[in-house]
Amino acid sequence: MKKHHSALALLAVAVTLVVSGCTAHSSTSMQSAAQPVTQAQFITLQLRESTSDFAVYLRQQAEQLDGGTAEFAAAYQSGDTALAQALNAPTRMFYNRMLVARSEFSDLAARIDGPDPALGSLNTSATAGTALSGWQAIESDLYPVAGQSPLTVEQRTALATALTTDTHSLSEAVYGLSLTTDEQTAGAAALIATLGNEAASGRKDSLSKSGVSDLQGYVDGARIVFDGIRAVLVTQDAALATRLDHQFAAVQDALNSYRDGVTFMTYDKLSESQASSLRSDVADLAASLARVEPTMGL
């Protein structure tokens, strides 16, 4: 009996030693496998994730734009002006967020929201005397100037059909679209420098006076890009990253103060002081965003 207990004790000791040896070996293997990530690897991983996340964001906005545009177009086509006006700015916001990537769908964009001289360098097809199309043409009918004749039912139907068709084509076009990080940063900087400044000055969509709402969409799109590359920018220029944090916050705080639920004040309701402050904040943001691409050396 004693021999039996001694054998069991020896077996228990042996098992303990074997398990301990395996554990020690596993810990050593895990430690050797868990090598620290180099800065170059970190940057590569972050930029890859940014590209993937922005592609998903584009698809999400395109899907919501597609559905929202169908509802807006139906209201406009039926002659329900009040409903169409109410849906105008909120629906366009989905589109405005996508304009960081406008260079990838410029032909469709020219039909969906142009020509409009306020687009500046983002729309080289905007020329004087060119017929309006898409949102611009419909806005002109929804917010007519004095003495302007309303469009006929046939004309409204044609515009509504073209807008929904082109918007659906856009939603299909962005699937599979993947912008590099340098394309994102360049697009965000150009968007705020052109349309962002136009909206902050009240010159974008001046008939509907929806510049404040437009600006929110542009800022949303640019902010998504910045959030995606911020961790990398910090390694290159932490001061610039911090400055952009504050500048995005300043513009967003101003926009929040002009918001009422999902809608925004029309630009003409801003005081001169408010408008001046908004222009200054957006100009500062545009200047800093222009520094991102060369700073990161993408």
UniProtKB/TrEMBL annotation:
It is found in: Cell envelope. Keywords: Signal. Pfam families: Peptidase_M75. Residues 1-24 form the signal peptide. The keyword Transmembrane helix does not apply. InterPro entries: EfeM/EfeO_iron_uptake, Imelysin-like, Imelysin-like_EfeO/Algp7, Imelysin_sf. Residues 57-290 form the Imelysin-like domain. It comes from the Bacteria. Belongs to the EfeM/EfeO family. This is Iron uptake system component EfeO.
